[in-house]
Amino acid sequence: MNYNLNIENEDKVKKPVYQELKNLLSAGAxxxxxxxxxxxxxxxNTSINLAGPLIIGYTIDHYIQTKEYNGLMMFSGIxxxxxxxxFGASYIQTRLMGGAAQRIVFNLRNIVFNKIQELPVTFFxxxxxxxxxxxxxxxxxxxxxxxxxxxxxxxSSIFMLIAAGxxxxxxxxxxxxxxxLPALCIWLFVNRLSPWVRKKNAANSKNVGLMSxxxxxSLSNFKVVVAFNRRDYFRERFxxxxxxxxxTAIGSGIANTVFMPVFSLFSNIAQLLVLIYxxxxxxxxxxxxxxxxxxxxxxxxxxxxxxxxxxxWASFQTALASWDRISxxxxxxxxLQVLKSEEIMSSDDRGVIEFQNxxxxxxxxxxxxxxxxxxxxxxxxxxxxxxxxGGKTTTASIMARLxxxxxxxxLLKGRDIRSYDAKERARRIGFILQEPILFTGxxxxxxxxxxxxxxxxxxxAFLSVINNAGLGQLLNVFDEGLDTNVTSGGESMSLGxxxxxxxxxxxxxxxxxxxxxxxxxxxxxxxxxxxxxxxEKLPSKTTLVIIAHxxxxxxxxxxxxxxxxxxxxxxxxxxxxxxKLIHGKIQS
Length: 588
Ligand SMILES: Nc1ncnc2c1ncn2[C@@H]1O[C@H](COP(=O)(O)OP(=O)(O)OP(=O)(O)O)[C@@H](O)[C@H]1O
Known about the structure:
Layout: H1 17-26, H2 32-64, H3 69-118, H4 121-126, H5 129-171, H6 173-220, H7 222-227, H8 231-257, H9 259-283, H10 289-330, E1 353-361, E2 367-376, E3 381-385, H11 392-399, E4 407-412, E5 415-416, H12 422-428, E6 429-432, E7 441-442, H13 443-447, H14 459-468, E8 485-486, H15 495-507, E9 513-517, H16 525-536, E10 543-547, E11 559-564, E12 567-570, H17 574-582
Parallel strand pairs: 3-10, 3-11, 6-9, 9-10
Antiparallel strand pairs: 1-2, 1-4, 4-5, 7-8, 11-12
Helix pairs in contact: 2-3, 2-5, 2-10, 3-5, 5-6, 5-10, 6-8, 6-9, 6-10, 9-10
The structure holds adenosine-5'-triphosphate.
């Protein structure tokens, strides 16, 4: 599956407007009830507004020309009541839609965020965090604007347009045709230009995302930026992204306003035509003055919504472009699915983890692992060594099913690793990354991350769990022990401290397989020795995989594997491996 959100699907078919609107409305499906009530109010209001000109025309012909002022007062009163009702109903409708729009965006943000959480590591490799933030924040906000302000105006304009058009044709068919003809020119114009406007808006949304990604990258790497004095470099990059954003924003601004003058021109032409032809009809006795006034009001009621649609069209197109960006995330599936029908083979005798003819490459990259076969047995310690970029972390990531092989199979306890659900797999496999990730909170909360077993323990109970596991001494490096605050996603901790927290986090889960990817590289020698003593206390069932560059870390390994140029070669014990290296049987 292609997880790159910014790769456009070339053969995307253009959908008709009603289909697009339906898609957009699906975002607000949960607010259907409120939308229906608001829509009903809108229909009543529009109908009342439509009746207005008819009543005015009737009053002119029957009461003003005949000077019956009682009737005039009565109809003026009726009109006043109608307009007051419209005012009250519009207020209710606006409040209803404002609340509904906020709830739609609230739910949508949750849905998009949860969806992002479900997606595999490849998705995060292929998309920049800043762009994702922009989709969750900015694009959902644009939908909010559409739902709270534009949607009902949009629908009411369409309704008013159809109703006023029909009224005009019913009252006087020929005059109706004269009035409506210029609108056909507008329709042709809009039809031709809409794809262009949509493209301009999509380009602008994309650039907002790219700019946000640029900001995110420089902010999250600010230390390197400052240390290498690369502020200019990032300033230049930001300037470029900002410039692109500015250019596309101007493009979309022009596209969004291009309809306006055209709409005004044709609506003025229409009114002029109605007036000329209407006077001609009055002269020949085919129309009364009252009706011509009603007619001009209807022509207004017909062209005003078109003018309104011109500005709403932009909002509609922007919302569509944003909905496109959001729904791209929503339609993505995690391709690391759990296999349902995997036959459970006899477990332990097949080892803890086994690679069977595994081939792997990152998306759009060359193959990294070729034809890899090995088996790791229960309770043993294995070391994976090899040159930088040789494929050690990739091999470990496949063991933890962060990725699936392109070919071949990985077995966990004799069963295809794809048949384990995520919870079970995470319970069985502990993975300490080269750069452990911490979350804002306390040391305790970070150790307990993803561990339900001790989640409800009191502080004292949890401390005794830590002490019983022999981890107590590791807490000495934190000023306030378990209560030490972790801020800015771990930035307040040294790398070594972060590694210790990640170590305790993994250790307490008592996994079947514990992978340490350069996990002790930033810890002082004394603490490292302490860690190796603690590792000896791991349950005898736990298989340990150590990825390391320092020889002392792997001395006690039962078996060494060399990982180089995508090949994983079994090299025997530490001594055997050294001998093989000396005699050049393994390429270092
Ligand atoms: N997310 C990724 N997307 C594309 N290519 C990647 C990705 N991660 C790693 N690679 C590539 O895969 C190859 C193996 O990388 P890997 O991280 O597995 O090596 P390593 O042996 O662990 O290196 P080191 O000792 O430096 O940690 C490298 O060529 C690297 O550029």
